Amino acid sequence: MRSDLFAFHLRITGQVQGVSYRAWTRDHAVQLGLTGWVRNEGDGSVSALIVGTSKSTSAMLERLWEGPTGSNVSAVDPQATALDQAPEHFVITR
What we know:
The protein is an alpha+beta fold. A hairpin with a 5-residue loop joins β2 (35-40) and β3. The chain is globular. The longest helix is centred in the N-terminal third of the chain and has 11 residues, at 21-31. Helices cover 23% and strands 37% of the residues. The chain has a single domain (6-92), classed as Alpha-Beta Plaits (2-Layer Sandwich).
């Protein structure tokens, strides 16, 4: 695993389901060269795993507060995590 990569597991809360937040997240993650995943949770939140350089993960953490039109993000809670959990691409999971 590359030593210049960082991984964060995220929980995003607010109005983040039913507004294409997962597709928006995937598109921005791909633009930034991140790998990982995003999914809806049963409690109305969205979870994600982002893996990338310090610069790209920082940029994504800032973007997650914006979200797509119709979203209203109340919190983005990042937790550092192990790098071995990331897929090779960025995907939407169930």
